[in-house]
Amino acid sequence: MLATAIEEKNAYDVALENFDLAADALGLDDGLRAIIKYPERVLAVNVPVRLDSGKIVRFEGYRVQHNTARGPAKGGIRYHPNVTVEEVKALATWMTWKCAVVNIPFGGGKGGVTCNPKAMSLGELERMSRRYASAILPLIGPEKDIPAPDVYTTPQVMAWIMDTYSMNVGYPVHGVVTGKPISLGGSLGRNEATGRGVFYTALSSAQHLKIPVKDARVVVQGFGNAGSIAANLLHQAGARVIAVSDTRGAIRNANGLDIPAVISFKERTGSVAGFPESERIGPAELLALNCEILIPAALENAITAENASAVRARIVAEAANGPVTPDADRILDQKGVFLIPDILCNAGGVTVSYFEWVQDENHLFWDEQDVNRQLEKVMTRAFSDVLKLYLERKCNMRLAANMLGVSRVAEAVRVRGLYP
Ligand code: NAD
Q1: Cα–Cα distance measured from residue 33 to residue 406, given in angstroms and rounded to the nearest whole number
Q2: Which has the closest alpha carbon to 67: 75, 59, 55?
Q3: 10-residue mean pLDDT series, the chain (420 residues)
Q4: Would you say 399 and 393 are in contact if contact means Cβ atoms under 8 Å apart?
Q5: Which of 2, 164, 255, 327 sits between 20 and 30 A of 371, alpha carbons compared?
Q6: Pocket of ligand 1 (CB under 6 A)
Q7: What is the number of alpha carbons within 13 Å of residue 394 lying toward its C-beta?
Q8: In DSSP terms, which residues pair with 246 in a beta bridge?
């Protein structure tokens, strides 16, 4: 189970280890490392909530700003029972490099509340979201730190946060969060953006490796927002999505699943498990299937030293943040697997969040084709920037992406003269 794997490796240790590898490769001096390696701010907040039963329970919440040298902090808010301050620090760190890799003018931030949203009513979620928003209010704002959705947070949650912030300042502030409902200044294409970005980078990788997309076998772990949208776009492009999974189970059809039908089945039943034209398989078996593209799109540490040698994919596209541990990286590398690292692969979400913020700040909205066209431009350019470094330095794609992100942040620190 993923939950056990998470206990085995702290995501923040992974983030620091990957930073050190990039900093070493860049020959970064100790002073710069001290400035950009660690979070600028870490806020822990108490979130008391009245449940529907009348009982008051407390949740713990966090907001971390890792680095703002290139612009305001940007990053999602996660509601999950496994949220820890270390995990939020790791996710904030990755956001810094991610925004730099796609070259958008944001720094890295992240937030989270340790809770089980699946066991909460809509009213309880609203009260918790508003209380959490009030608690992190001193840190957030359109010029300072702009939250967005992450695991188990939705456009509705963003609307409550926008409203809480706006009530406090006394006027509507659309640009304080992204991933909002369209009726409230959200951007067309934002909901699909992460999956669409995964799709563009998967296409670029297949092209680089000369793998035809038509009939390419695709496996997706985590059929949520990012995973299901990437799966659907690949299905539309002619690939065969042969297996998908969620927390309740994994399913397989060697001839290719009818992805739009799996999406409607999941909407109706809450899971992919039990989809008629499929056989049920185990979660470990899914990751070991012979395929061209494997997309881990659930949570951290899905592919570890224990199961990496079983992976039989040509391309691993990290839709999730941190799904492959550094030990597993080395194993995949030795096996010749081409990895699209998370800070590149799933950067479509933050890219369209940036477009949403630009539209909110300008009070002028784009149509969906414009959003998708701009997204494709940003993602394919970022992919070729990383690929260039990968080919020049003869390193792996993770190191190339981290080097690109870290070097752009280091450059901003240097140019601004942010030395103490
Ligand atoms: P989501 O909640 O919509 O989907 C997550 C899916 O993973 C759910 O279907 C869940 O059932 C499944 N899952 C969880 N644990 C699993 C397990 N052990 N095995 C199989 N399936 C499992 O979340 P999302 O927004 O799609 O995010 C997924 C990942 O993508 C996260 O790591 C998130 O940080 C990353 N990400 C998301 C966005 C975005 O805009 N949504 C942007 C960047 C990165």
Answers
A1: 10
A2: 75
A3: 47 91 95 95 98 98 98 97 96 97 98 97 98 98 96 95 98 97 96 97 98 98 96 98 97 98 98 97 97 95 95 98 92 97 97 98 97 98 98 95 98 86
A4: yes
A5: 164
A6: 2, 150-152, 194, 221-227, 245-247, 283, 297-299, 319-321, 346, 349
A7: 0
A8: 249
At 110, list the tokens: 């992240």
Nearest alpha-carbon partner for 374 in 43, 103, 42: 103
Q: Quote the pLDDT of residue 11.
A: 86
Strands 41-50, 73-80: pairing kind: unpaired
Ligand 1 mean position to 339 CA, how many Å?
18
Write down the catalytic residue from 9, 74, 98, 110: 110
CA 170 to chain centre: 32
In 3D space, the residue among 379, 398, 387, 260 whose CA is nearest the CA of residue 327 turns out to be 398
Quick one: 312 exposed, middle or buried, by C-beta within 10 A (0-12, 13-18, 19+)? middle
pTM of the prediction? 0.94
